[in-house]
Design brief:
With 517 residues, this protein is an all-alpha fold. The protein has one domain. The chain is built from 23 helices and no strands. One of its GO terms (molecular function) is secondary active p-aminobenzoyl-glutamate transmembrane transporter activity. Keywords: Membrane, Transmembrane, Transmembrane helix. InterPro entries: AbgT (IPR004697). This is Aminobenzoyl-glutamate transporter.
Length: 517
């Protein structure tokens, strides 16, 4: 890190510098996850004998902290270690997708596409365009983490801007704006199912639409784009240009040279292959009896084969065009070159695999201990006991969810825990489940980008290290804190204004419980 004249530092600079320095003094992320796992074991043993008097709404039984240091639990840890690692959700997603992306990248297909993109995208609109694409990527489950975030760095670097700023902007859109999207996705019916079950505790006749927050999440996407655009261009990138010098020797990214005739031909042939594949997928999935739909004919549900095939489709979507581009352009001479590209992409992920091993073990241990679940229930019950006015309680839900999100990453797991408390409580105050769910979704998004417990957080650190080798957890957290804090405040205010103006939250939604009944 280069030295900065402290006389020119603002309070924000000094605060973020302190966060970065403190965070980067932590051990390597892999060792940090190991330490956190051991700490969780010890804490679980200390808390296990205590009766906290909480009922787990998912099972209806007493919620107890599980002692992970018993002989039974340690034996289970050893016998399940391999399975916990290989079933760690981000691991397969990242490695399979990167196999395809590696071919598209090393063949030159992605580089050519970026050059075309930058040739007609105004510099002033580069940031909002990237953030918008990041938000839309939610539709394809976790694809944004392995595609859009690294491409954010590549695009910014190719445009002569700081690559970490591009990664930060994309991360803000993909994860910080998780609940902002104008395209429905599988998360909508998943969250709605828990909300409806919680609402039926008070009124068994309540029936909510899966898209009951669609209008709000659609308009929220514009809020996220505006916040990320301003912060990236006016706060984050100027600071990074002073504190994070790009290690040019490490960077394997495109420059802005002109594309030759052979490359142009190869790009358009490869693009034609990609488009043909997408059209084939569309016509295959379009019929209501398509094998890619679930038994009910839905195509966006989490149980639909299409949604469960997103990662293999990403692999093919990049592998085939990359293959074609490589041979047409002459960058590939034989299939061995293709395999070498895939091997090279896997080699760059070796550090991530090591981190993922310890991260998987820690997250599994933390979930089994019930420490996060207990924290969520205690916080929800405390907020309920305060008996605050509806508007204040809504804000409290946003802030509590944002805090709990630092400990419990899964959106559905958190909502399964706290929806049976919040939804009935606010229904008795005349506030509809639709509004309560909207408040939860705001809080569930904004703190994703500052918690190392996010399964993809180590991956984003690895992406940053491709440009600035010294990047650590502290660097990434210090970069993302402004996004998290500003989104928390602005998005909450936006929800309150939205509520005050009476704009519909989504299909068949309402603000008042009496209107739902």
């Amino acid at each position: 890190m280069s030295k900065i004249n402290t006389k020119k530092k603002t309070f924000l600079d000094r605060f973020l510098d302190a966060i970065e320095v403190a965070g980067n003094k932590l051990p390597d992320p892999a060792i940090l996850f190991l330490i956190l796992m051991l700490f969780t074991w010890v804490l679980s043993a200390i808390l296990a004998p205590i009766d906290f008097g909480e009922i787990d709404p998912r099972t209806g039984t007493d919620l107890q902290i599980v002692n992970l240091l018993t002989g039974t639990q340690l034996a289970s840890f050893l016998s399940n270690m391999v399975n916990v690692f290989i079933t760690f959700p981000p691991l397969g997603v990242v490695l399979v997708a990167m196999l395809g992306v590696g071919v598209a990248e090393h063949s030159g297909f992605i580089n050519a596409g970026l050059k075309y993109l930058l040739s007609f995208t105004p510099q002033a609109l580069l940031t909002p365009t990237l953030v918008l694409v990041a938000i839309v990527s939610h539709t394809a489950a976790d694809a944004g983490y392995v595609l859009v975030i690294p491409l954010g760095g590549v695009i910014f670097y190719a445009a002569g801007r700081h690559p970490l700023a591009g990664i930060a902007a994309a991360f803000a859109g993909v994860s910080g704006g998780f609940s902002a999207n104008f395209i429905p996705s599988g998360i909508d019916p998943l969250i709605q199912s828990f909300t409806q079950s919680a609402a039926q505790i008070i009124d068994p006749t309540v029936n909510l639409n899966p898209l009951n927050n669609w209008y709000f999440t659609s308009m929220s996407s514009m809020v996220v784009v505006a916040v990320a655009w301003y912060l990236t261009d006016r706060v984050i990138e100027p600071r990074l240009s002073k504190t994070a010098k790009v290690d040019e020797d490490l960077v394997d990214a495109p420059k802005m040279e002109d594309i030759g005739p052979k490359e142009k031909k190869a790009f358009w042939v490869a693009t034609a292959v990609m488009v043909t594949g997408m059209l084939a997928l569309f016509f295959w999935s379009y019929p209501t009896d398509s094998a890619l739909r679930d038994p009910g004919g839905e195509i966006t549900s989490l149980g639909a084969p299409l949604m469960r095939s997103i990662v293999p489709l990403i692999f093919l979507l990049f592998w085939l065009p990359g293959l074609v581009y490589g041979f047409v352009s002459g960058n590939y001479k034989e299939m061995k070159d293709v395999i070498m590209s895939m091997s090279k992409s896997m080699g760059s992920m070796s550090h991530y695999v090591v981190m993922a091993f310890f991260c998987a073990l820690f997250i599994d241990a933390f979930a089994k201990s019930n420490i996060g679940a207990m924290t969520a229930l205690k916080g929800a019950n405390y907020l309920q006991s305060m008996n605050l006015p509806g508007q204040v309680t809504i804000v409290g839900i946003v802030f509590l969810t944002a805090f709990v999100n630092l400990l419990v990453g899964s959106a559905s797991a958190k909502w399964a825990l706290i929806s049976p408390i919040f939804v009935p409580m606010l229904m008795q105050l005349g506030i509809s489940p639709d509004l309560t769910q909207a408040a939860y979704r705001v809080g569930d998004s904004v703190s994703n980008i500052i918690t190392p417990l996010l399964p993809y957080f180590p991956l984003v650190v690895v992406f940053c290290q491709r440009y600035v080798k010294s990047t650590g957890i502290g660097t990434l957290v210090s970069v993302m804190i402004p996004y998290s804090a500003v989104l928390l405040i602005v998005w909450t205010i936006f929800l309150l204004i939205y509520w005050t103006l009476g704009i519909p939250l989504g299909l068949q939604s309402s603000y008042e419980y009496m209107m739902v009944r």
